[in-house]
Amino acid sequence: MNKLEIKNLTKTYGRKKANDNITITLENGVYGLLGPNGAGKTTIMKQITTLTEPSEGEIIYNGENIKKLDDKYRDLIGYLPQEFGVYKNFSAKQFLQYVGALKGLTGKNATKKIEELLKLVGLYEVRNKAVGKFSGGMKRRVGIAQALLNDPKILVLDEPTAGLDPQERARFRNLISQISKDKIIILSTHIISDIESIAKETIMIKDGAILMKGNHRDILSAMEGKVYSIKSTSENEVNEIQNNYKVVNIQRGIDEVELRIISDKIPPYKEIEAVEPKFEDVYMFYFDLENTREV
Ligand SMILES: Nc1ncnc2c1ncn2[C@@H]1O[C@H](COP(=O)(O)OP(=O)(O)OP(=O)(O)O)[C@@H](O)[C@H]1O
Questions:
Q1: ipTM reported for the complex, 2 dp
Q2: Which positions fall inside the ABC transporter domain (predicted)?
C-alpha cells in the first residue's frame, strides 16, 4: 500500500498564494484534481513531484517526510508534465530508450520494460515510427509510457487529456484504470468527464484551496435539490432566466427552449422540474463558469 499525506501545503509566489493550506491523504487509486485555469493544480503536482518546495507544510510518504527520503522518494515518482516535449525524429522506442537511460534503466531490463509499455499504451505496432508524426493522443501515450518506465508508485499526470479527441480520451481512461491498482495516480483536468469516469475521489480546487473533496456520490449529493429544468416558449423569459440564474445548458427546440439551471430556491416558473444533478452542474455551481454551453 502507498500512502501520501499532504499536510497544510502552502505555496506563495510574492503575495500570491498559489496553494493555500492544502491537506489531503492519498492511497492507491485515481484522484482527480478539478479546477479552472490558475486554481493551483499544477503547483500541487510540482510539490508532490519535488520540482517545487512548499513555502509551508509537508508531504509524508508511508510515514516519512519526502524531504528526508530525497532520491528514494523521487525514484517512486512518474510524471507527465503539462507541456510534454518529445524529440520529433526519435521513434517511440528510441525515445523511451533515451528516457529510460536517463532514469538508469539500461540493457535487457530496459528492452523488456519498453516493449511491455509500448504494448500497454497501444503503440507497439508503430514503435519504430517518428514521434513527430504521431497524433496528439499518441504523443500523450508516449508521455504516459515514459512516466511509467521506473514502475512508479506515485504517478502524476498534469492535464493528460488536453487536446485529445473523444476516442483518444476514452482510450486514455481505460489505460489509467488498468494501471491504477497498485499506485497512487493524481491527474489534473478541467474536463469533467475525465474525472467522472475514472477518479475514485475528486479534489476540487479554487483559488489555491480545496473547495470540496469526495467520491462521485458525495459531490453530487451536495447538489441535490439545486438543479432544475425549465421549459419556455418566450424569448423574454429565456433572457430573464439567463440574467437571474446560473444556466448550465440551453437546448433550443423548434418552438421551445429548455434551460438547465442551478438555484438554491425553486424558481417561479410554470414549466419547471427538479432534475438529478450531474457533474457538470457541480462545476458550474462552484466555479461559476462565465460561458453557458449552447447546444
Ligand atoms: N512560478 C510562478 N511564479 C509566480 N506565480 C506562479 C508561478 N507558478 C504559478 N503561479 C501562479 O499560481 C497560481 C496557480 O497556478 P497553477 O499553475 O498551479 O494553476 P493550475 O490550476 O495548474 O492552472 P492551469 O490549469 O492553467 O495549469 C496562478 O495564479 C499562477 O499564475
A1: 0.95
A2: 4-232
For the stretch 149-187, what's the b/e string if a residue is b when 16 or more beta carbons lie within 10 angstroms of its beta carbon?
bbebbbbbbbbbbbebeeebbebbbebbeebbeebbbbb
Beta carbons of 54 and 7 less than 8 angstroms apart = no
Return the pLDDT at 288. Answer: 67
Q: How far apart are CA 9 and CA 156, in angstroms?
A: 17
For ligand 1, the distance from its centroid to the CA atom of residue 14, given in whole angstroms, is: 12
> And the C-alpha cell for 128?
519504430
Residue 102 class from Cβ within 10 Å (0-12 exposed, 13-18 middle, 19+ buried)?
A: exposed
Q: Is 39 in the pocket of ligand 1 (CB under 6 A)?
A: yes
Give the mean model confidence (pLDDT) for residues 275-286: 88
pLDDT score recorded for residue 293: 42
* Count of positions (residues) in the chain: 295
Candidates 89, 87, 96; CA nearest to 130 is 89
Whether 34 lines ligand 1, by a CB cut-off of 6 Å, is no
Give the closest residue (by CA) to ligand 1 atom 7: 13
- pLDDT at 59 (0 to 100): 97
Give the chain's largest Cα–Cα span: 72
* Cα gap 228→136, rounded to integer Å: 38
The pTM of the full predicted model, rounded to 2 decimals, is 0.88
For ligand 1, atom 14, the nearest C-alpha belongs to 40
pLDDT digits (tens, 9 = 90+) for 65-93: 999 999 999 999 999 998 877 788 899 99
Instruction: State mean pLDDT over 111-127.
Output: 93
- Pairwise CA distance, residues 227 & 265, whole Å: 10
Mind listing the pLDDT tens digit for each residue in 24-64? 999 999 999 998 889 999 999 999 999 999 999 999 999 99
Ligand 1 geometric centre to CA of 75 (Å): 26
